[in-house]
């Protein structure tokens, strides 16, 4: 089983897949996931295809599609995901999300990277800024995502509204 976000992009940016068949709705050690943390709201595990010395994914237990499905009310959840990532990986330098169609698993997952990055890891997660917001990129940092949601906007490939 693989869930690499970049190698196997979903060509469709349509509605998120149903719970049925969503591998991230059932993240347990029994299923082979390297779970490093879990509570009632969040689960964290090591990415099977690490692109950095440390590469964790933090996900909500509840099925939420992708960052494109997030609304203002999710800003708190994203903040808790970010804080959990930092707590688990104090040396992390980059935390963020792929934006459809560049996310192969349509269950919200925060990437948490602790350097050094692999060669691929250096190019797969570009964070671009424009002014206070997000520039054009298929990857959005957790801080950018939180700011966009708090401003009442949706997260897209393009630059965020100021
Ligand atoms: Zn991803
Ligand atoms: Zn799911």
Automatic annotation (TrEMBL):
* PROSITE patterns named in the record: HIT_2
Query: Which GO terms of the molecular function aspect are on file?
Result: hydrolase activity; nucleotide binding
Domain of life from the UniProt record: Eukaryota
Question: Does the keyword section mention rRNA-binding?
Answer: no
In this protein, the active site sits at 111
Q: Which organism is it from?
A: Cutaneotrichosporon cavernicola
Q: Which UniProt keywords apply?
A: Hydrolase, Nucleotide-binding
Q: Does Nucleotide-binding show up as a keyword for this record? A: yes
Recorded protein name is: HIT domain-containing protein
Q: Where is the HIT domain?
A: 23-125
Return the motif ranges for Histidine triad motif. 107-111
- What is the organism lineage in this UniProt record? Eukaryota, Fungi, Dikarya, Basidiomycota, Agaricomycotina
